[in-house]
Structure formats: structure tokens, C-alpha cells
């Protein structure tokens, strides 16, 4: 199973009308828009069957609790000052007779990896990679979990997703915690007040942005006891500059998504799309992500199997790439620097996890750089785990016989469960 694949679900229903800005006060952040929606219950036997089939039970352990899967819809700010909208989230609630399932329970707030499908929700069953990891590693072991879908996805009425935008990632995760607390009484869920943060890939960036915001602005509201940031891009600006020479797998999706999102947030990243993108992409790229007609609309872009450098050159103008690599006043670079997450000091115990051969989120640019930055100012509460040796031990035959497949799967499949395991072991010390 691909633990971080682009979901193949179809559009489940009409999105709510765009609310842009409305009359809701910022004081309503985290308020529920409607009653929680019960989606399913995954039994202990179902959970154990999946972890046995995928060889994960050695990491997860046998399930202790059934898991109720609910969808919540809550109020949260948009990207512009004073703007309110809504976002949805999955709420995974342990259920069963074992005392570990009954509470009071700690709450894990989890931010998911990049997904290109607008209808995508975390409130899924065990067939979904993200939902499966959250249920088997956390909820089945006595953690309540809330996992935001972000602005612009699933039930959110927001007209776009502010991709890799630190401020709205943080506000959306923070308000998911509030929403989970608001939903808890009607669900018979008793929380112990302890909050833990985690996320993978884009979610690693979102979780770290949330961590910084909570300790800076909301320390009196949230008892943040631990954080585990997994394979996230913490130096976004350096990623883009490095990506000119070393484009990542999926450059034709992720980088245009970032740039066009920042243009919608800030309005001054570029003058026109044709300043950045080649014909015909300049004519539709600004409205493509996240994708409504998935996966059909992605056929307008170079195929996922395209060599990254060739995909980069097909999408982007050569003079734009040169300016991005060399000009510190490039509009994209200025916007990207606002998303960088170094230069602050975590208070809660913090674990960083990544793999040093990750071809998508480079270890040295992100996990290692963040660790070195935090430790340089005495951050002895921050640890770093490199899971590369375990990945090689488990999948070395693929590396030997089919290196292209190995590196294609590294970030999307091999790394995610191992870093989730590191997060669970870490959180077990503080629950």
C-alpha cells in the first residue's frame, strides 16, 4: 500500500458556496458549523487485519480500541485579515472496554501531506493511507486524533488552498483542536487536556508552523506536551532555489501549486502568469489546484513519470528560473521566505524525523537544518531521527533491482510509516 499516495476518491458532493469574507467574528474560531457526522467504526479485527497484511503490526502493536471515524466542520480564518471561512477535519475516537480507550485521552492534532484532489478528506476508512496510519498508530492505541483537511478541501467553502502558507496552516490546525474539544461532549469523548502535534510532508511544515504559533500566541490555552514534525520542508525558500538545479519528483505539481497559492495570498508574487509559466500552462495553471476533476485535469500537465528536469523546463520560463536562482528580490523567493520556519525556539519536547535519502524533501535542507538551528541556541529538547538505514534494510532489494521505483516510493510509501512510528513512541512518553 502507498501510505502517502494521491487519493483516488471521486468528488463526493457539491462544495459549499465560497464565503471569502463574511460576518462571522474571529471569536468564533473553532466553532462547529454543524453536528459531527458519523462516518464509520473500524473494529479491532479490521485494524489488525490491515496492519498484519501490510507488515505494520510490528510497529503499531495489536489494536486495543475500535475507532469511530467522524467528520467535523468548523470555522477558521482565511488568508486575508478579518476573513472567516470553514474547514473540515476527521476526528478519530477510540472506543471499547479497555481503560486505555475510555479516557481521559490525549489529543493528537495531525496535519496531512500534500494532496491534489479538492474533494479529499481525512474522514475515510482503512483503505485511505493517511486515515489508516492515524487509526492504527494512534487512535487504536488510546489517542484521540483530529486531522484537518485544510482550507479549500472537502467541506471547506474557501475558494482556494493556501498551499505551504504557514499562517493559515497554523490557524487551521489550531482551530481543529478547538473544534475537536467542542465536539467531544456530544460524542462522549473525554480529553485529558494534553495536546500533541504532528504532521507529514506538507503536514510537517504545517505542524511546525502550528507549534510556533501555539507557543507564541496561545500557550495559556493549549497544554502542548510534545511535537513530532515528520519529513517536512522547513526552509521553503531554500527548497525553491535548490530546485532550480535539483528539481524534485512532482515538480510540475507541487511548485506551481505553491507559487499560484502565494500569488492569491499576497498578490505581488508576479505580474501575470505568463511571467512564470510557459504556454499553454499560463492559461490555466492559476485555477488548477487543488484539482476538482481529479485525476483527469492533471493530464494537462507533464506526466508524473516525466524526468523532473524535463518537467521543470516544460512548465517554467527559463528566465524566471534563472531569476529565482540568483535574485533575492524575486517575488517567489520573498513569498517563500515568509514560510520558512527556522529561527525560533521550541519549548515543548520536539522530535524531527526524516530519511537522509529522501528525494522530495531533502534531509540536509530541512530536518538537519532545523535540528542544527534549534540546537545552536541550546535546544536540548529537540531530537532528530534519520530512518534511512531502516528503509534500506526493508527495501534494499528494490534499491538494487529498480532504483527508480525505490526513489519514487521513498517519500510516498517507505518513510511515512517509520516516521509515524517514531512519533508514536515519542508521544507515549507524554500521554
TrEMBL record:
- Which InterPro entries does the UniProt entry name for this protein? AB_hydrolase_fold (IPR029058), Lipase_secreted (IPR005152)
An example of a Pfam family matching this protein is: LIP
Mention one GO biological process in which this protein takes part, according to its record: lipid catabolic process
Q: Which GO terms describe its molecular function?
A: triacylglycerol lipase activity
Protein name, entry field: Esterase
The record lists the organism as Geoalkalibacter ferrihydriticus DSM 17813
